Amino acid sequence: AQKITQTQPGMFVQEKEAVTLDCTYDTSDPSYGLFWYKQPSSGEMIFLIYQGSYDQQNATEGRYSLNFQKARKSANLVISASQLGDSAMYFCAMREGRSNRLAFGKGNQVVVIP
Amino acid sequence: SAVISQKPSRDICQRGTSLTIQCQVDSQVTMMFWYRQQPGQSLTLIATANQGSEATYESGFVIDKFPISRPNLTFSTLTVSNMSPEDSSIYLCSGQYYNEQFFGPGTRLTVL
After folding, report:
1. Span B49-64, pLDDT tens digits
2. N or C: which terminus of chain A carries fewer CB neighbours within 10 A?
């Protein structure tokens, strides 16, 4: 069964605007962590943000914030004030408490246009 | 954040040969992992690299094809053996640092 679902098609975003990338997850483990990564065309995987299932507040890192809705099993990434350098694939991932492995979604392609 | 370096960054290899990829992490990393990303796909975990013992492989990956070593806390190697064009992928080393998980820059492998 798919653990992480990212279903949005490729997105075009105007520079300086905000963009929300959807991610839903499936787990019965009460302890888990959610991750977002950025992968530019160079291929490196850049860690953006982490949210623990017991964290009381939504995670934020600079222009990145995670809209964590636990009851809906949703962990959407919000990028504020988009920049041309934000053009990349974005992957949502989950690590369940009993496991060391990260389960990745299929990714969202974002293209920022001037 | 953890610092992870990996080499080579890319290589083009002939069918039937083997390639060893090296990964160096800083001392704050606890767990080390190897992932594969086939063209246009998401990441798949190959194995967890265990210090001083055999790696723990995921379903579909075997030691004969992907031997892994981790002789100490901060260094690991992945060998892709007897390569075929289907092994053309990005191979990424990853390290866990507290709750967070970071990736090396990846090795882009093309097998002809």
Report:
1. 988 889 999 999 999 9
2. N
